[in-house]
Amino acid sequence: MCAVPGDVIVTHALGSCLGIAIHDATAQVGGLLHVMMPLSTIDEAKAKANPYMFVDTGVPQFFREAYAAGALKGRLVVKVAGGATTQQGMQQDRFAIGRRNYIVLRRILWKNGILIQAEDVGGTQARTMHLEIGTGRVWVHSNGEVREL
Questions:
Q1: What DSSP line would sit under 116-147, residue for residue?
Q2: In Å, what is the CA distance from 129 to each residue of 8, 47, 55, 90, 112?
Q3: What is the CATH number of the domain that holds 31?
Q4: Is 116 part of a structural domain of the chain?
Q5: What is the rounded CA–CA span in Å between residue 91 and residue 106?
Q6: Are β-strands 138-142 and 29-35 bridged in parallel, bridged antiparallel, or unpaired?
């Protein structure tokens, strides 16, 4: 979690992974979480060692840390990128990791009354996501283009 207004946080190589940016403009608190897998039940030892690897364990911890740093739930802006299908050339993404990551995230947020303000998810292209702490500005680089969220 970061509270230094001039900082920009970046996460690279969001294929099937999700980048989740949260920002509270009043507290000037924000963070960027890069999660790789939807459910920690596939490897509980890894989840215990690194809960941020999984959507179901990482997202709740991420929000708890934001609140501890001074963010308030009602002021948080949430933006999401990633969740792509990374198995190019195949008719069907057998494991659907990107889609499953996104579904688990949406369920967690919905159960907690939190909405996503902007997103760039799905497709087949990897993304790089940036969060500027002072402004809450989020932008995504993908396939040679830059998109504001």
A1: -SEEEE-SS--EEEEEETTT--EEEEETTEEE
A2: 10, 24, 17, 26, 24
A3: 3.30.1330.200
A4: yes
A5: 25
A6: unpaired
Within 10 angstroms of residue 38's Cβ, the number of other Cβ atoms is 24
% of the chain surpassing 70 pLDDT:
91
* Inter-CA distances, 86 with 14, 15, 34, 98, 130, Å: 10, 6, 16, 8, 21
Q: Report the percent of the chain where pLDDT is more than 90.
A: 85
DSSP 8-state symbol, 54: B
pLDDT tens sequence across 83-124: 998 766 555 566 889 999 999 999 999 999 999 999 999 999
Domain range holding 74? 8-148
Measured between alpha carbons, how far is 108 from 29 in angstroms, rounded to an integer?
21
Asked if the structure places residue 53 within a domain, the reply is: yes
- Structure-model confidence comparison of residues 20 and 89, the more confident one: 20
Domains contained in the chain, number: 1
Task: With beta carbons less than 8 A apart as the criterion, state whether 39 and 105 touch.
Answer: no
Q: Is residue 2 situated within a structural domain?
A: no
Residue 3 in any domain: the answer is no
CA atoms within 13 A on the CB side of 109: 19
